[in-house]
Amino acid sequence: MKKIAIVTTGGTIAMTQDPNLGVVPSEKINQKLNDIPYLKNIAKTELIEFANKPSPHITPKDMLELSKLVKKLIKNKEYDGVVITHGTDTLEETAYFLDLTIDTVKPVVLTAAMRNLSEPSADGPMNLIASVRVASLEKSADNGVLVCLNDEIHAAREVTKTYTSNVATFDSPGYGPLGIVDEDTVVFFRRTLERMHIEADAINDKVALIKTYTGDNGETLKHLPKMGYSAVVVEGFGRGNVPPAVGNVLKELVKQNFPVVVVSRCFKGRVLGVYGYDGGGADLKKHGIILGQEVSGQKARIKMMVVLAKTKEINVIRDYFEFQNK
Are strands 3-8 and 81-85 parallel, antiparallel or unpaired? Predict the structure, then answer.
């Protein structure tokens, strides 16, 4: 029987209803997640309590420390895989951080819950059971960091939270799940090929994420260097286009050797230098702005934090974001 480390970080899966406060973290639940019935029929499990935080409280520094812990666990021959419990709000960012910074063949699976244990249809126990099943199987190996909820398996790079309350919130727009957890087995339909490993002992979390909009004059962007930021990710339109005033500000930032990555607010598709008008993707690329391909704004920011700890050279940073074109 395989042995799986269950690392807790908190989230709704470890919360309960308080009559006065609402849904809040519960130390008791967090510490007993590996006591869920049926887990012992799948694998030997050991609970390792990393934190008990709502996921909006998780910071990039927490992600870095979690990455270091998971690296130690997967190097330990005692463990065959790792399951991490997490809140859903920022799970995709932590999952992507781990996917970038951990090079492992052993399965690493993040799971969560949309309904706390006080609710009659709490999904946490089944999600944890399914995730331990996934982490226990040889066919789950060498798939990068996985996310498993609602009997679906997703790639960390592709998955995003799509619904505020539904248990089927996690989806991979444009890709679909890697596989499913069924009653009798785990089925993988595909693998994700676009993966990158960046060894990280430190991060630079002074990366802004700005969403542009119609009529945006770029005033906020102008002040980022003075505010102590080291780089910015801009969520543009369509193929990676922005209003002309924003484009002008981004060009000035690049002249100051301030890294700028543009991604799209669209859920599907790549940004690409197609449009040559002022603020169009081709115009931006010509002036040194980096086009971040199909990675979302929040995930592009995660990558930039890791990359900035290694280099400040814009052309080197570009290679991390535009590698699909190489």
Answer: parallel
